[in-house]
Write a structure and sequence with these properties.
Strand content of chain B: over 45%
Structural class of chain A: mainly beta
Number of strands of chain A: 11
Distance between the termini of chain B: 33 Å
Order of helices and strands of chain A: EEEEEEEEEEE
Mean pLDDT of chain A: 95
Largest sheet of chain A: 6 strands, mixed
Oligomer: heterodimer
Shape of chain A: globular
Structural class of chain B: mainly beta
Order of helices and strands of chain B: EEEEEEEEEEE
Strand content of chain A: over 45%
Number of helices of chain A: 0
Radius of gyration of chain B: 13 Å
């Protein structure tokens, strides 16, 4: 079967750094997405990785290792507004999008 | 207005009611999607439309009936729902139909079935 694993919930402190991991077992791989979803709002696109390595976008970075079936989202200089759920999704060999259940990130002052 | 809009934002209905959810996208996209989001579960893809043609139906019960009259509008008609259908229903669009395309989501309709 196909599976995406993310921690259910994480807590971090304002101004700190947090890493949200995503591991996947899918039939093939054609890319991995990260989305952010604030409570009661639409998921919004953060990043798309298809090649190994780190991609940086401001305070957010996303890393991919295809050989390990692993990705992480790194958030630096955390702000209270970063409190949200972070969704990992993988494109499989049939170009189907397989979603994780999301990681709820709680930022404390 | 920009992006993807959904109405209503909240809906309470009885099991014998008939209601419809509406989605509109102002992005000029050609593909639209309906998802079900339940607490602590992955997003479940329900329907995919590309250029107003249904291209995917993931074994969704017939009490959910989609309609796509044009590339900007998508409806989800609901009838004789069950309490377990209570969830957040999200609409999304993308430039073209393909899982590698970035999807843009609406804010969702929070549905409660009594």
């Amino acid at each position: 079967g196909q599976n995406i694993d993310q921690p259910t919930e994480m807590t971090a402190t304002e101004g700190a750094i947090v890493q949200i991991n995503c591991t996947y077992q899918t039939s093939g791989f054609n890319g991995l997405f990260w989305y952010q979803q604030h409570a009661g709002e639409a998921p919004t696109f953060l990043s798309y990785n298809v090649l190994d390595g780190l991609e940086e976008k401001g305070r957010f970075s996303s890393f991919l290792s295809r050989s390990k079936g692993y990705s992480y989202l790194l958030l630096k200089e955390l702000q209270m507004k970063d409190s949200a759920s972070y969704l990992c999704a993988v494109v499989d060999s049939n170009y189907q999008l397989i979603w994780g259940a999301g990681t709820k990130l709680i930022i404390k002052p | 207005e920009t992006g993807v809009t959904q109405t209503p934002r909240h809906l309470v209905m009885g099991m014998t009611n008939k209601k419809s959810l509406k989605c509109e996208q102002h992005l000029g996209h050609n593909a639209m999607y309906w998802y079900k989001q339940s607490a602590k579960k992955p997003l479940e893809l329900m329907f995919v439309y590309s250029l107003e043609e249904r291209v995917e139906n993931n074994s969704v019960p017939s009490r959910f009936s989609p309609e796509c009259p044009n590339s900007s509008h998508l409806f989800l008609h609901l009838h004789t729902l069950q309490p377990e259908d209570s969830a957040l229903y999200l609409c999304a669009s993308s430039h073209s139909q393909g899982a590698s395309e970035t999807q843009y989501f609406g804010p969702g309709t929070r549905l409660l079935v009594l």
